[in-house]
């Protein structure tokens, strides 16, 4: 009974520990968090060019999308890289449009999930 | 690491919700069925008024004589249970995740406050641990399972603290945090942690006996 | 501890163990834990978090220098938990020990139910242990004898039918020396009240019936006593775990009152008998409350005194204190009424602390005193706290409106040399009331 419990505990610990990746320590560029009045977490790491090069993202609209509110869909072939995210996304959710924080989170994490690449855990972007 | 994270926050989380919800329902239902089958008199004794009278009396700090006899323990129990619920339920990170998945939002407390609440929970666990070791009457009743249960409760808070501050191995502690939280939730219906579900019933039953039949106080 | 207990010779236990087989133990435990018990057992066993808060409630624990084996949960650990863990595979010797623990180290007073945050009823759990021991045939001899008496004679003390009537007539004659036209009406159909007593009253304390007859006469009560079995309201089978006999005894008692077509039953100053009609026996028979109102003496005295049916000519002036018996105070909330009665009767009343629902147990009730001489020493030694509590009042008299408490307190007074008298309320009323001359 006792050895069994201990061996399970040790096994879980090992698996979890070995799966910890070694994180890169390059120069950081971060998401602009000035629109947020007060922040509880450090701003998220995001090296724009490095990221897009690595992720092979050519189309700006992948992130800088334009949304047609009447039709309720993203407009293909249009992009909004001349605008800041907070110009559309308010701090609070309005209707179907997610608030700024949620927009960031969903945009990054959904893509990372689909691509099976990039961080998902809170602290991997909001690094202390 | 991400794969594990996705496993823990995906299928494992669903499993946890499933086990917790249906475990709790099963527990309640089995008590109800047993009552009807074997002790139907309990139904005739049960009184909402006196059940609530007892529960409220026992929730009022230091109203019961038993609490006055154990001032330190009672205070710890009080603070512990309050922090135990507030810390996870009002942590911004948890609410953010719920919002992103299900669009559920409610107000959160500041991270630094929750940090303190977490430390309080851990300090209370340490108190319980020391009490189990040193108080004669508690030590006599204690079995290995009591320590395991205490660890099951303390671990999500300890790992949550480590993950939040990103001390040592962040990913490791975050995943362990999620896993241990899931273990705790799944353990609730099937261990003595089920006092979370059952104790209001036992208290209300005793309150009904004392109020309805015995015309006496039970605190 | 266990060495000392094992030295106690008790034929009921010793012979019971010799006759006991492994199959019988498993069958008994299985019968009680899996077939009879239900939601309460499951809830209590699965929710107790071993916090130890019940300890402070127990007079045995407190008297035994806080030895943890005597805490309420400690007693469950030593009996029921072990049976559950081992799935009934325990030894005959274990059953003997469990019987001693359940029958002599717990009075089922339910004080601990008030100290457990979850309201876990340890008394109920230890009653299950007594039930298991009963099915194993391992019950202390003396209390088993009273249960046998109940099953044969429907009274606790082997009182024969004619002896019962004889005793009542004897007391009637005695009382007639004082009040010539006093009667103890037997078998009076349609009387307002049936008065019932416990078996030991006609056996050892017949004068108490005399006192009550004078009180009834003075108050002009339309009352009767049955001349048939069913007169005894006590029920020791309730405490041996012999629920079947408990039920038979109770049914006979209620049936007798119904046969006499009375409006209510008044019972003497006894605690466990009240428990048997108000809590356990009635439920066994399927009644939430007794089918005929059963009024405890405390409430009856209060009724007589507050309505002026009984007048007190001179108050009792000795310094008195009051013991709160579990079965009528924690069991029926008569704490305020008993104080009103005592304050009417006595001029110098002091409380003992703690009191009312929180009073310490007498350590005699719950059938413990009925386990008799083999356990007397242990019983008295394991209630030092009660002696200290009583001594602290500085009272000359302790009033105890319960037979078991009365006898238990007398033993404690004697052992700890407290120099106190133990009295029933009825005695004081009798001695200080205005009596009719005819």
Q: What composes the largest sheet of chain C?
A: 4 strands, parallel
Low-confidence stretches of chain A: 21-26
What is the radius of gyration of chain C computed over CA atoms, rounded to a whole number of angstroms? 22 Å
Task: Outline the low-pLDDT stretches of chain C.
Answer: none
CATH class of the largest domain in chain C: Alpha Beta
Number of helices of chain A: 5
Task: Note the main sheet of chain A.
Answer: 2 strands, antiparallel
Which structural class do the helices and strands of chain C define? alpha/beta
Order of helices and strands of chain C: HHHHHHHHHHEHHEHHEHEHEHEHHEHEH
CATH topology assignment of the largest domain in chain C: Rossmann fold
Class from secondary-structure proportions of chain A: mainly alpha
Q: How large is the count of helical segments of chain C?
A: 21
What is the end-to-end distance of chain C?
60 Å
Assembly state of the chains shown: heterotrimer
Q: Please estimate the helix content of chain A.
A: 25-40%
Domains of chain C, number: 3
Strand proportion of chain C? 5-15%
Q: CATH architecture of the largest domain in chain C, please?
A: 3-Layer(aba) Sandwich
Question: Could you give the order of the helices and strands of chain A?
Answer: HHEEHHH
Fill in the keyword field for this structure.
heterotrimer, A: 128 residues, mainly alpha, two-stranded antiparallel ribbon, B: 219 residues, 81% helix, 0% strand
Describe the structure.
Chain A is mainly α. Chain A contains five helices and two strands; from the N terminus they run ααββααα. Chain A has a two-stranded antiparallel sheet. In chain A, a hairpin with a 4-residue loop joins strand 1 (67-68) and strand 2. The longest helix of chain A is centred in the N-terminal third of the chain and has 17 residues, at 2-18. Chain B has a single domain, classed as Fumarate Reductase Cytochrome B subunit (Up-down Bundle), CATH 1.20.950. The longest helix of chain B has 28 residues, at 11-38. Chain B is globular. The termini of chain B are far apart. The model of chain B has no long low-confidence stretch (mean pLDDT 96). Chain C is built from 21 helices and eight strands. Chain C has helices spanning 2-7, 11-19, 22-36, 39-47, 59-63, 72-85, 92-104, 122-136, 141-153, 161-176, 200-204, 207-219, 237-240, 243-259, 272-284, 297-306, 335-345, 376-381, 384-391, 403-415, 425-432, and strands at 193-196, 223-224, 264-267, 294-296, 316-322, 346-350, 397-399, 421-423. In chain C, the strands form two sheets. Chain C has a four-stranded parallel beta sheet with strand order 2-1-3-4. In chain C, strand 5 (316-322), helix 17 and strand 6 form a beta-alpha-beta unit. In chain C, helix 3 (22-36) packs antiparallel against helix 8. Chains in contact: A-B, B-C. At the B-C interface, helix 2, helix 3, helix 5, helix 9 and helix 12 of B face helix 4, helix 6 and helix 15 of C.
């Amino acid at each position: 009974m006792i050895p069994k419990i201990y061996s399970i505990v040790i096994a879980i610990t090992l698996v979890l520990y070995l799966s910890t990746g070694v994180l890169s320590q390059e120069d950081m560029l971060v998401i602009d968090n000035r629109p947020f009045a007060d922040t509880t977490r450090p701003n998220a790491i995001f090296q724009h060019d490095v990221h897009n090069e690595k992720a092979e993202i050519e189309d700006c609209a992948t992130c800088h999308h334009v949304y047609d509110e009447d039709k309720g869909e993203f407009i293909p072939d249009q992009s909004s890289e001349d605008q800041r995210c907070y110009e559309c996304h308010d701090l609070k959710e309005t209707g179907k449009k997610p608030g700024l924080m949620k927009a960031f989170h969903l945009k990054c994490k959904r893509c990372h999930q689909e691509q099976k690449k990039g961080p998902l855990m809170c602290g991997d972007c909001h690094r202390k | 690491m991400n794969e594990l994270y996705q496993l823990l926050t995906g299928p494992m989380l669903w499993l946890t919700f499933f086990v917790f919800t249906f475990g709790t329902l099963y527990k309640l239902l089995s008590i109800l069925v047993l009552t009807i089958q074997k002790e139907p008199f309990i139904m005739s004794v049960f009184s909402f008024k006196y059940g609530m009278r007892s529960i409220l009396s026992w929730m009022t700090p230091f109203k019961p004589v038993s609490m006055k006899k154990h001032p330190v323990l009672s205070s710890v129990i009080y603070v512990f249970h309050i922090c135990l619920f507030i810390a996870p339920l009002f942590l911004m990170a948890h609410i953010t995740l719920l919002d992103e998945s299900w669009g559920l939002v409610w107000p959160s407390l500041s991270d630094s406050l929750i940090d303190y609440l977490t430390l309080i929970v851990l300090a209370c666990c340490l108190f319980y641990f020391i009490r189990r070791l040193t108080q004669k009457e508690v030590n006599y009743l204690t079995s290995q399972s009591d320590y395991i249960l205490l660890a099951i409760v303390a671990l999500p808070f300890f790992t949550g603290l480590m993950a939040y501050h990103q001390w040592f191995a962040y990913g490791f502690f975050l995943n362990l945090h999620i896993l241990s939280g899931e273990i705790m939730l799944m353990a609730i219906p099937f261990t003595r942690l089920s006092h979370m579900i059952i104790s209001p019933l036992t208290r209300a039953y005793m309150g009904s006996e004392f109020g309805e039949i015995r015309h006496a106080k039970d605190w | 501890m266990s060495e000392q207990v094992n030295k106690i010779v008790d034929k009921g236990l010793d012979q019971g163990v010799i006759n006991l087989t492994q199959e019988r133990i498993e069958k008994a435990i299985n019968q009680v834990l899996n077939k009879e018990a239900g939601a309460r057992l499951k809830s209590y066993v699965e929710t107790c978090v071993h916090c130890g808060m019940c300890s402070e409630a127990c007079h045995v624990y407190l008297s035994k220098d806080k030895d943890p084996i005597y805490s309420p949960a400690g007693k469950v650990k030593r009996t029921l938990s072990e049976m559950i863990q081992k799935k009934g595979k325990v030894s005959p010797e274990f059953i003997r020990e469990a019987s001693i623990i359940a029958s002599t180290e717990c009075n089922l007073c339910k004080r601990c139910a008030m100290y457990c945050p979850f309201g876990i009823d340890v008394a109920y759990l230890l009653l299950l242990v007594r039930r298991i021991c009963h099915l194993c045939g391992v019950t202390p001899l003396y209390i088993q004898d009273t249960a046998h008496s109940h099953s044969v004679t429907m009274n606790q003390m082997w009182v024969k039918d004619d002896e019962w009537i004889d005793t009542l007539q004897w007391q009637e004659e005695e009382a007639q020396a004082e009040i010539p036209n006093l009667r103890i009406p037997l078998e009076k159909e349609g009387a307002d009240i049936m008065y019932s007593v416990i078996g030991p009253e006609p056996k050892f304390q017949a004068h108490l019936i005399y006192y009550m007859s004078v009180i009834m006469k003075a108050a002009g009560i339309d009352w009767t006593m049955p001349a048939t079995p069913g007169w005894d309201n006590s029920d020791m089978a309730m405490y041996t775990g012999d629920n079947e006999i408990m039920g038979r005894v109770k049914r006979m008692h209620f049936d007798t009152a119904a046969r006499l077509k009375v409006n209510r039953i008044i019972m003497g100053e006894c605690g466990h008998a009240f428990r048997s009609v108000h809590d356990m026996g009635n439920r066994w028979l399927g009644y939430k409350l007794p089918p005929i109102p059963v009024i405890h003496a405390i409430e009856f005295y209060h009724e007589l005194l507050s309505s002026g049916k009984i007048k007190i000519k001179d108050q009792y002036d000795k310094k008195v204190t009051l013991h709160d018996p579990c079965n009528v105070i924690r069991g029926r909330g008569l704490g305020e009424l008993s104080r009103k009665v005592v304050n009417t009767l006595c001029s110098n009343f002091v409380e003992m602390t703690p009191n009312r629902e929180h009073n310490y147990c007498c350590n005699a009730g719950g059938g413990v005193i009925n386990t008799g001489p083999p356990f007397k020493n242990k019983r008295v030694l394991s209630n030092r706290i009660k002696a200290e509590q009583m001594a602290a009042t500085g009272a000359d008299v302790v009033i105890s409106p319960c037979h078991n408490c009365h006898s238990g307190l007398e033993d404690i007074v004697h052992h700890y040399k407290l120099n106190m008298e133990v009295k029933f309320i009825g005695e004081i009323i009798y001695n200080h009331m205005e009596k009719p001359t005819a």
